[in-house]
Specification:
alpha/beta; 5-stranded mixed beta sheet; 5 strands; disordered N terminus
């Protein structure tokens, strides 16, 4: 038996990336084989015409389940909500993210959450990069045609979350990614989100 044949072939995984939103929720699907990644789908769930907040959450659950059933992802990578000053916006965004996570949990799919800055850092090398820069790099790195690109940056942000997870499994990202082993680790990894005292 040759050495090449005895080596284990790279595992193929389907990664669903989600960029949570209450008006527009982006999703992107990647096929990951070893160090290579290929885009399978890119889209948005447009909720702008849905007036009722609870109906929006129902629509998110329904559409995310539809994407899951269509592509059978092995893992979900979701962008963590951005912690801004508007508490109501944060609450709405957190609900939208929670419903998307619940849809994945209902199908026993492992979920990985990444901070927006971590995703930008992984894709562009700059945690403060613009959404436009992320979209341009995603198009170039995944060889996406102009016709397949969407005008909505939510879609490429979702694809970036999936690609960030693809990279994370190849080589762990610097401190801040991965599971915390203690409360002290969690605080260090999430310095902008938690206060240590009180």
């Amino acid at each position: 038996m040759s050495l090449l044949r005895s080596q284990t072939a790279p595992r193929e995984r389907i990664i669903l990336g989600i960029d949570p939103g209450t008006n527009m929720m982006g999703y992107g699907v990647l096929k990951s084989v070893g160090s290579k990644a290929e885009m399978l789908a890119l889209g948005v769930i447009d909720l702008r015409r849905v007036g009722d907040a609870y109906l929006k959450l129902g629509r998110i659950h329904e559409r995310i389940l539809s994407v899951i059933e269509g592509f059978l992802p092995d893992e979900v990578a979701i962008e963590a909500p951005f912690f801004g000053k508007n508490v109501q916006s944060m609450l709405k965004l957190g609900r939208a993210q929670g419903v998307a996570i619940a849809a994945a949990i209902s199908r026993d799919i492992p979920i990985h959450e990444y901070a927006p800055m971590k995703i930008k850092q992984a894709i562009t090398g700059n945690g403060a990069a613009s959404k436009e820069q992320v979209a341009a790099l995603m198009q170039r790195m995944l060889h996406i045609s102009d016709e397949a690109m969407l005008p909505y940056l939510d879609a490429t942000d979702a694809l970036a979350a999936a690609y960030c997870h693809h990279l994370q499994t190849l080589r762990p990202l610097p401190a801040g990614g991965g599971a915390a082993r203690s409360w002290k680790d969690f605080v260090r990894q999430n310095a902008g989100r938690v206060s240590e005292g009180r």
